[in-house]
């Protein structure tokens, strides 16, 4: 199934039925009086969040969605039938915006969350409502009101605790496959990942968090280079970002420091709030260097980058350092700050594989 995270749809609630202007006509009842019934109300359009759906593909080609109209009233005090409502099932994490007014209608963040998108029109009144002691044969009635109509923009933002950020081939897919049960496509060419993947990382009984793998970001993404910024929206709900850097690129002409700076600049161009999120540096592919060369390479990288935040060294391919990284992330998510994470800094540093260079974020 294709991953679709944007869609534009038109919705229309049902119109209310017209009221009836009828007079009672029966044998031996010459002056039966008014008996026109009311029109039925039009059906409304609702959206409901469904955790079993993970894409907006259902709305990619089905552009128009309309509820049923209410029936007209009839004589003999017969009221019109209410129009059937329409429920649109959408993935959890969907933002619904009115395009005409640019107003955020709903943010579906919980399973079974139900939101009214368009209210059906009220039914008209029959002439039986207008009878009185002075108006015994009213001919008045009212027409049903039209239902609400609007053009909506649907935007899916996946719900995850941790987001992976980095250049193509930095090892994001390899990492999420190593620490969770997710099975993203892994290959030795750029832009292997073409859509976000979610993985659940379990660090113990009833201890887990969700990590999101997004397609690689390159310099010039703001101008449309590569896949652009179109998938960065999926990182806006995360609580922490892990910036993966290929410490030993295959191309010796590629400078990891410049690549890391380019990613940071693109992040800031896209959204300042996303740029300000807590971000840890994860240096990947340390298995390709000997211990002495690795230490020199890491020290040189951190010094040239001027990084003052947390730095971890891992090998997503062999799994070295991944376990400690997951424990540190879980501690941070559980505590909401570095209070709990700092408790393990000594242990992580003594491992000499996955350790913080600094305790600042």
CATH class of the largest domain: Alpha Beta
Taken from the alpha-carbon principal axes, the silhouette is rod-shaped
Shape-level CATH architecture of the largest domain: 3-Layer(aba) Sandwich
Biggest beta-sheet profile: 6 strands, mixed
Quaternary organisation: single chain
Annotation, overall tally of beta strands: 14
Measured as a percent range, the helix fraction is 10-25%
Distance between the termini: 38 Å
Q: Low-confidence runs (pLDDT<50, min 5 residues)? A: 339-361
The mean pLDDT is 80
Cα-based radius of gyration, to the nearest Å: 30 Å
Widest beta sheet: strand line-up: 10-11-9-12-13-14
In short:
By secondary structure, the chain is of the alpha/beta class. It is built from eight helices and 14 strands. Helix 3 (256-270) packs across helix 5.
Protein architecture, described:
- Helix content is 20%, strand content 23%.
- The protein is of the alpha/beta class and 361 residues long.
- It folds into two domains: 6-156, GTP1/OBG domain (Spo0b-associated Gtp-binding Protein, Chain: A, Distorted Sandwich); 162-351, P-loop containing nucleotide triphosphate hydrolases (Rossmann fold, 3-Layer(aba) Sandwich), CATH 3.40.50.300.
- It has a six-stranded mixed beta sheet, with helices on both faces. It has a five-stranded mixed beta sheet with strand order 3-1-8-5-6, with no helix packed on it. It has a three-stranded mixed beta sheet with strand order 4-2-7, with no helix packed on it.
- β10 and β11 (207-213) form a beta hairpin.
- α3 (256-270) crosses α5 (291-305).
- The chain is rod-shaped.
- Mean pLDDT is 80; it is low at 339-361.
């Amino acid at each position: 199934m294709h991953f679709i995270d944007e869609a534009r749809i038109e919705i229309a609630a049902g119109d209310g039925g017209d009221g009836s202007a009828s007079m009672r006509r029966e044998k031996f009842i010459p002056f039966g009086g008014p008996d026109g019934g009311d029109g039925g109300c039009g059906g409304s359009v609702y959206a409901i969040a469904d955790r079993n759906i993970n894409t907006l593909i259902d709305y990619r080609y089905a552009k128009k969605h309309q509820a049923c109209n209410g029936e007209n009233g009839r004589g003999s005090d017969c009221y019109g039938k209410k129009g059937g409502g329409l429920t649109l099932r959408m993935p959890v994490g969907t933002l619904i915006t009115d395009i005409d007014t640019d107003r955020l209608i709903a943010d579906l963040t919980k399973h079974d969350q139900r939101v009214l998108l368009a209210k059906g029109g009220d039914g008209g009144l029959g002439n039986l409502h207008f009878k009185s002691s002075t108006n015994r044969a009213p001919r008045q009635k009212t027409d049903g009101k039209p239902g609400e109509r609007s053009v909506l923009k649907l935007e899916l933002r996946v719900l995850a605790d941790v987001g992976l950020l980095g250049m193509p081939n930095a090892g994001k897919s390899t990492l999420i496959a190593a620490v969770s049960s997710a099975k993203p496509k892994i290959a030795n060419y750029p832009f292997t990942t073409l859509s976000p993947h979610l993985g659940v990382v379990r660090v113990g009984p009833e201890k887990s968090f969700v990590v999101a793998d997004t397609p690689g970001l390159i310099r010039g993404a703001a101008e449309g280079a590569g896949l652009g910024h179109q998938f960065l929206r999926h990182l806006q709900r995360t609580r922490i970002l892990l910036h993966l850097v290929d410490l030993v690129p295959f191309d010796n002409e590629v400078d990891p420091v410049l690549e890391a700076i380019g990613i940071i600049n693109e992040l800031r161009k896209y959204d300042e709030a996303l740029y300000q999120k807590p971000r840890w540096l994860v240096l990947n592919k340390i298995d390709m260097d000997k211990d002495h060369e690795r230490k020199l390479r890491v020290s040189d990288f951190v010094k040239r980058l001027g990084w003052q935040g947390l730095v971890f060294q891992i090998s997503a391919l062999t799994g070295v350092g991944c376990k400690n990284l997951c424990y540190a992330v879980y501690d941070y998510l559980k505590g909401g700050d570095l209070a709990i994470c700092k408790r393990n800094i000594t242990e992580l540093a003594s491992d000499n594989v996955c350790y913080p260079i600094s305790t600042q974020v």
